[in-house]
Design goal:
about 325 residues, alpha+beta, 7 helices, extended, Non-homologous end joining protein Ku, double-stranded DNA binding, DNA-binding
Length: about 325
C-alpha cells in the first residue's frame, strides 16, 4: 500500500528561470515507515533526554556555556560563537533560481539525496504546467539552489507524473572518489570470457521485469509494527507526555504575466525580484499570547513570593512575642 498523499506544506516560495516565477509549495515525498522509538524510564515511562556533561570533570554544563568547535588538528579545536555561525548562514530567498538545464542521464544517481513533491500555489497552474511539459519535451532538468531550514542545498527540478519534483542533491565535495578503491579493470583485464559474459546476460534476462516497487517491503518495520500492535492490544502501554510545536511556512512569490515574461526572457530583460508578503496575523497573535502568558506567570510567581515572605515574617514575630 502506497504512503498517503502529503497535506502539509514544508516550504513555500517559487521556482524561477528567466523572468518567470512559479509559486510553489514543497511537500515531503517520503514517509518513515519504521516505528520511531524514544528513550523512556522503564519504571515511570517518563521520557529520558540527553544531559550535557563535561566529559573530563563529569559535571553538567549549562546551554549558555556550550560553544561549537571544529577539530583542526589532533585534539586542537577552533571554536565559533553563535553570532559567527549565524553570519555564515545562507540568506533565505524563498526562490529556487534555476541556473542551468541539464540532461537527467548526466546526473549520477549517487548525487541524489532527498526528494520533495511540489504543487503550484495561487494562480500558477499554467506556468507550472509550462515548466513541467517543457522539461519533458527537452529531456532536461533544472539545476539550482534552495535554502531549507537555514541550510543551502543543490537542487534538481524534474517532472514526475503530473507534477514537478525537487530533489535535493549532495554537493560535489561530499562525493567520495573511487580512485583509492581496489576495483577490477575491464573484462579483458580480469580474464572474463565471452561464454561467461553471455551466461551472465542470460541470468539477468531471466529475471527481467517491469518496475514494481510495491512488491518489496521492509520486513523489519512490519515485524516491529506487529509486535507493537500485539502489546497495545494486551494493554502494555505507558502514558508519555508529548510537546508539540508549529512550523511557520513563509509566504509565496507573486505571479507575473506568462507570455510577456517568456518574451522578455528570450530578449534578455532584467528579472523582477520575487515579492514578499508580511507574515500572517495568526503568528503575531500567537507571539502576543505567549508573551502575555509569560507575564502572567511572572506576576503569579512574584505574588507567591510576596505571600511567602509575609508568612515567614509573621512566624518570626510570633516567636519573638512568645519568647
Amino acid at each position: 500500500m502506497a504512503a498517503p498523499a502529503p497535506t502539509r506544506a514544508l516550504w513555500k516560495g517559487s521556482i524561477s528561470f528567466g523572468l518567470v516565477f512559479i509559486p510553489i509549495a514543497l511537500h515531503s515525498a517520503t514517509v518513515e515507515v519504521r516505528p520511531k522509538m524514544k528513550m523512556l524510564d522503564s519504571e515511570t515511562g517518563a521520557p529520558v533526554g540527553y544531559k550535557k556533561v563535561d566529559k573530563v570533570t563529569g559535571e553538567a554544563v549549562s546551554q549558555a556555556d556550550v560553544v561549537k568547535g571544529v577539530e583542526v588538528d589532533k585534539g586542537q579545536y577552533v571554536t565559533l560563537t553563535k553570532d559567527e555561525i549565524r553570519e555564515a548562514l545562507p540568506k533565505t530567498t524563498q526562490t529556487i533560481e534555476i541556473e542551468s538545464f541539464v540532461k537527467l542521464e548526466e546526473v549520477p544517481t549517487i548525487y541524489f539525496n532527498k526528494p520533495y513533491l511540489t504543487s503550484p500555489t495561487g494562480k500558477a497552474q499554467k506556468v507550472y504546467a509550462l515548466l513541467r511539459d517543457v522539461l519533458r519535451r527537452t529531456g532536461r532538468v533544472g539545476v539550482g539552489r534552495i535554502v531549507v531550514s537555514t541550510k543551502q542545498h543543490l537542487a534538481l527540478v524534474l517532472p514526475h507524473g503530473d507534477g514537478l519534483v525537487v530533489n535535493l542533491l549532495r554537493w560535489h565535495e561530499e562525493i567520495r572518489d573511487q580512485t583509492g578503491l581496489q576495483l577490477p579493470g575491464d573484462a579483458k583485464e580480469v580474464g572474463l570470457t565471452d561464454r561467461e559474459l553471455k551466461m551472465g546476460e542470460q541470468l539477468v534476462l531471466d529475471l527481467a521485469d517491469e518496475w514494481h516497487p510495491e512488491r518489496f517491503r521492509d520486513e523489519f518495520a512490519e515485524k516491529v509494527q506487529a509486535l507493537i500492535e500485539a502489546k497495545r492490544r494486551a494493554g502494555e502501554v505507558k502514558q508519555v507526555a508529548e510537546i508539540m510545536g508549529d512550523e511557520a511556512v513563509p509566504a509565496s512569490a507573486e505571479v507575473f504575466d506568462l507570455t510577456e515574461l517568456l518574451r522578455r526572457s528570450l530578449k534578455g530583460g532584467a528579472a523582477p525580484a520575487p515579492s514578499r508578503t508580511p507574515a500572517p496575523a495568526p503568528k503575531k497573535a500567537a507571539a502576543r499570547s505567549v508573551k502575555t502568558a509569560a507575564n502572567d506567570e511572572r506576576e503569579r510567581a512574584a505574588a507567591a513570593a510576596k505571600t511567602t515572605g509575609k508568612a515567614k515574617a509573621t512566624v518570626k514575630a510570633s516567636k519573638r512575642k512568645s519568647a
